[in-house]
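help with this.
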Amino acid sequence: MDLSWLPDDGGTGHMPPSDEVIQFWTTVKEKTNFKKLVEIGFNAGHSSSILLTLFDDVTIQSYDIGQFDITHSNGELVKEKFGDRFNLSITDSLKITTGEVNGSDIIFIDGGHDYPIVSGDIDLWEKSDVPYVIVDDLQINGVKRAHGELVKRGKVETIYKQYYTAVLPSWMRNNPAKKPVNVPIEVLKRK
């Protein structure tokens, strides 16, 4: 998959269009048949672009706090390339209401990785009518803690888990001491 049209400022890590990522999304599509995805955390748009390229029946409503210039410019590029199938709202995910996400098929949580933010994003999903949630970056303590609390409540079950190798932020890419990160990502559904 060619995403060379999508600039990467190198400042942040992201999901690459690798075989393992394509396999992950293909399996998620087979298991859930999602068509309407809510993405929390657009960043530079790699995940959205992968999904929109893979599946021509998918639409994405993406939310991002907009702290990076590349978020705004790449959001415009993705919108230009995929039209009505993509929309980006610059907002704090903790301000998203259930009315904005209800009726979607799946929420992909990949925004802020601190515990209060991930916990709030999971709370949004729990209060919504969205049947599935994907939690990315389970190797990060705040994400792992919020995910663990969700699982302990006993109202969800894992339907799929996989690992993928992330593209490191530029400040880590040329440092031989920094090894590629094997990122756990998990799909859960309501019981």
